[in-house]
Design a protein that fits this description.
There is one protein chain. The chain is mostly helical. Helices cover about 45% and strands about 0% of the residues. Helix 1 runs antiparallel to helix 2. The longest helix is centred in the middle third of the chain and has 30 residues. The N and C termini lie far apart (about 75 Å). About 5% of the residues are buried. Keywords: Membrane, Transmembrane, Transmembrane helix.
């Protein structure tokens, strides 16, 4: 990881230096500028991936947690698992008062 971050730093410095050459009008350094930019991106990506791997390795305990009983896979993945309550709540009664918005006919004029 240290080598990747060190190479990234060097390539960023080189890209800045080649960019100065391009700004001064030297078109011969364009290929080197592009290679330094792509190399810097690749080194930074590799460094970050190595850092993520190190963090994951250091944070893991090495033991896999035992599966819980409620994590067992269902035979039908779309099936709703049963609840622990013996008597589920009944469906609520429908609202006896109709919605006042639907009392008017569509397209009618409002009275003032």
């Amino acid at each position: 990881m240290t080598a990747a971050v060190g190479a990234w730093g060097y390539l960023v410095w080189a890209a800045i230096d080649f960019g100065r050459g391009l700004r001064d009008g030297d078109q011969g350094v364009l290929a080197f500028f592009l290679l330094a930019c792509v190399g810097a991106v690749a080194c930074l990506f590799i460094g970050l991936m190595l850092l993520a791997r190190i963090v994951r390795t250091l944070s893991s305990t090495g033991e896999e947690a035992p599966p819980r009983a409620d994590d067992a896979p269902l035979e039908n993945p779309y099936e709703v698992p049963p609840t622990d309550s013996p008597d589920p709540a009944p469906n609520p009664a429908p609202n006896p008062v109709p919605n006042p918005v639907h009392h008017t006919k569509p397209g009618g004029r409002r009275k003032k």
